[in-house]
Amino acid sequence: MKLHEYRSKQIFARYDIPIPRGRVAMTAGEARAIAEELGGRAVIKAQVLVGGRGKAGGIRLAQSPEEAEELATQVLGMHIKGLPVRKVLVDQAADIQTEIYLGLTNDRATGSPVLIASAEGGIDIEEVARVRPEKIARVWVDPLLGLRTYQARNLAAGMELPRAHWGQFTDIARALYRVYKQTDASLAEINPLVILGGGSMLALDGKIVLDDNALFRHPELAELRDLDEEAASEREARKYGLSYVKLDGDVGCMVNGAGLAMATMDVIQHLGGRPANFLDVGGGAPAEKVAAALEIILSDSNVRVVLLNIFGGITRCDEVARGILMAMEEVKPQVPMVARLVGTNEEEGRRLLAEAKMITATSLLEGAERAVAAAKGEAIEHPG
Ligand code: GDP
Ligand code: MN
């Protein structure tokens, strides 16, 4: 679950990370009033859950309350990467001298948090990693020991931060680690962390991504979920306990097991197709869940074919097939359906599905080939 910039910065402030004075406005009039409170000069910042707002024109600098109102009108009328801007953060404008990147995430390779910093802040860290990888410094944190002061200092040295700032940098890095740990975040990022003309540091932007699987431990954070900002399909999926992530492609995927779902997407991609989603229906795949999943996949108008990849294992494939058929009765898909079904009683399962005009396959490769062909509008022969 991604938190808005203003929510992320409110959390930072609770951990003594310095942030600019400012508040959220829903209307241009409010933005003007806030700019007045702040003394006139203010930045108007679109609150949408995507990065690169600056480049998209969603971050504007106003010299007066009147201009704040005018710019807020513009920004509140924008869509950024398809998302409507419903709120703006009005922050006191900062006198920026240097922009730094500081972020914490999990490094899967070492199984530990990694603190990443770069003197090339403000821009996409992915871009820095690609073009100037030597400009990125990292330290790995032992979760039992936490981030030690010397590690934060090593990082400051690694990014060639002038010594005068090491003290404050170390405090902010350690506070960010506490935010990351105590909120069960998978990402806590300040980009940019700025050094002001007077020499002090300020977190100008903030991004926290919380681990959904740990939200039950943080009811007060779970409440911050911004339902307006989520794809309706992802909200529906959560209701049924399905893990669904909408993507840009046209091959809908329904798979049992997250690992198998990812492998399925890889194979589709490898064959030149593009998955429309990640979806894990979980074990057993009861008819009701399959129906909900099918409905969610088909609510995406880009979907031109659905590939079901069900590994029966202990679950009997004929039961799974009956579940799929019941779901299809209910949802009545208008696009080709390809099913790869393996496990106990798989022949019977495939027979039932083939009778219902579904395209069946025994291997993932075969199923994915058929699905990709169907998405490209190529004729596919019905086997048997
Ligand atoms: P993002 O583009 O979505 O990451 O939004 P940011 O909050 O990081 O803002 C993008 C850029 O706008 C920053 O890197 C700064 O260069 C600039 N910016 C943001 N706030 C201020 C401010 O208060 N004063 C000035 N001069 N520039 C700002
Ligand atoms: Mn930023």
List the helices and strands and how they pair.
Blueprint: E1 2-3, H1 5-14, E2 22-25, H2 28-37, E3 42-46, E4 59-62, H3 65-76, E5 79-80, E6 83-84, E7 88-92, E8 96-107, E9 112-118, H4 125-131, E10 136-140, H5 149-158, H6 166-182, E11 185-196, E12 201-203, E13 207-210, H7 219-222, H8 232-239, E14 243-246, E15 251-255, H9 258-270, E16 277-280, H10 287-298, E17 305-311, H11 317-331, E18 337-342, H12 346-355, E19 359-361, H13 364-375
Parallel strand pairs: 15-17, 17-18, 18-19
Antiparallel strand pairs: 1-13, 2-7, 3-4, 3-7, 5-6, 8-9, 8-11, 9-10, 11-12, 11-13, 14-16
Bound molecules: guanosine-5'-diphosphate and manganese (II) ion.
The site of guanosine-5'-diphosphate (GDP) has 18 residues, from strand 3, strand 4, strand 8 and strand 11.
List keywords for this structure.
binds manganese (II) ion, binds guanosine-5'-diphosphate, four-stranded antiparallel β-sheet, 25% strand, single chain, alpha+beta, 384 residues
How would you describe what is shown here?
The protein is of the alpha+beta class and 384 residues long. It is 36% helix and 25% strand. It has 13 helices and 19 strands. α12 links the parallel β18 and β19 (359-361). The model has no long low-confidence stretch (mean pLDDT 92). The protein binds guanosine-5'-diphosphate (GDP) and manganese (II) ion. Guanosine-5'-diphosphate (GDP) binds at residues 43, 45, 51-54, 59, 61, 91, 93-94, 96, 99, 122, 191-192, 204-205. Guanosine-5'-diphosphate binds at residues 43, 45, 51-54, 59, 61, 91, 93-94, 96, 99, 122, 191-192, 204-205.
